Amino acid sequence: MQWSLILLFLMGQCCFITCLYEYHYVGENKNWSEAQQYCREKYTDLATVSNMTDMKRIPNKSGANMNEAWIGLYDQTDGNRTWHWSLPGVEFSKSKTNWSQGEPDDVNTENCGMIKKYLAWGDLSCGNDKQFPFLCYDEKNTTQKFHLINDKMSWLKAQNYCREHHTDLISGLNQLQDKQLQDELSSVDDSFIYIGLFRDTWRWSDGSSFSFRHWNLQFNNTKYNSGQCAMTVFDDGGRWKNGNCTDRKPFICYDDKVILIKENKTWEEALYYCRDHYHDLVTITDLDEQRWVQEEVKKASTLFVWMGLRYTCTLDLWFWISDEVVSYKNWVSDGQMDDCDMSGAMETGGQHKWFKKNDTEELNFICSK
């Protein structure tokens, strides 16, 4: 790429990276449906929460007159349950499972997942009376990624323990098939062991499929929780409980700063479109931003979508057009060589890896606002 083009791409972009989404606390008392309508008119929607990082970003109103606020999670009236993994970003695939023969049998409404020593899956009731050992995953500890906790807990308490002391309950086939995990389980008996598999009927107002849940430890205990709409409770560490949707409370909206454009354009055409109509082609600097963008790209009409990632032959490097350093990477490991006239695109299915594509291809693209 010529220096003049590099300068053109970077012009006015240095040191101006926007958050991909923002939360807004609204102190007016409304029922859940009214709050949803307000957020859709003023922002994007009622708050969607994708992980613990989001929980820390939500405005903390602990000590306010109203200690609770609606978020965008609601219980479907049709009762259609969907399986999820507890760890954010790990998507459940119906075609890639390891159910034991006859499972899931759903005896007495079984919504939590377990394994035995031989690693085949089964379903269990999630009640507080069902207490078993469990497996935690620690993404920061490369020498010991998996931890078998022999203290028996309910599934919800096990999830809470893993999130406080490690990362989360073990989630996904890749983790469950890891050789290190098999070594960890070599000495256990045939008892049930909880894993991060669960199913529920709860959905996000904006239609996103994030599996993150942050319920309080009394969830599903009707003495403390009832109703089909979720709220965050500020003096309980932001944990959620469900309540009657007609109750009037403050609420939290979110404003999405990225948008999928379902028009097929070359990379350079996409760049100018974003700069003319919004801010820029999207920049992704960490795993949390990757997870947010990949939720958007699921709706694309092409197999890949352009991002603001470009290769320059002159400098022999990849760079974000926002001038952000390419520190976080999610490339597919296909051994493809870097070449001139290449730009970065995210796959819209699979694991949403990044691919090096010829920038004359015409694809959908993601703009930042």
UniProtKB/TrEMBL annotation:
Residue stretches making up the C-type lectin domain: 23-132, 146-254, 254-368
Domain of life, per lineage: Eukaryota
This protein's UniProt keywords: Disulfide bond, Signal
Signal sequence coordinates: 1-19
Keyword flag Signal: yes
UniProt xrefs under SUPFAM superfamilies: C-type lectin-like (SSF56436)
Protein name according to UniProt: C-type mannose receptor 2-like
Originating species: Kryptolebias marmoratus (Mangrove killifish)
